[in-house]
Amino acid sequence: MQKIDVTEHIFSQYGVKEEYLWAKFPDYCIFRRPDNQKWFAAFLPNISLEKLGIKTDEKADLLNLKIDPDYKDFAVIDNKTIFSGWHMNKRHWISIVLAKTDVQQVKDLIFHSWQQTGKK
Question: CA 72 to CA 112: how far, in whole Å?
Fold first, then answer.
């Protein structure tokens, strides 16, 4: 899955477009719920996988998603394709290496993130 796939999926399923917030990082974008303005996803392109603890020179596009900490601990983190959130609260966020993660799993985790950020 690539950025275009993510943005098209999020728009078609949730009616949300990406927002570019940082002049210093013009390719980074976030997605937020229109009802409460909470972020449910952040797209971070071209991140060194060393920042995730992988010893490599490779870079990849990441998608950060909000997650229920109990679900994260039980079923998600494999430290190969899905990691504790990079540059986010590691208890409540995960980072997905998009090119290495199954498309349906990405879509399911986006839905989970959407649900998590809708809670009060």
Answer: 11
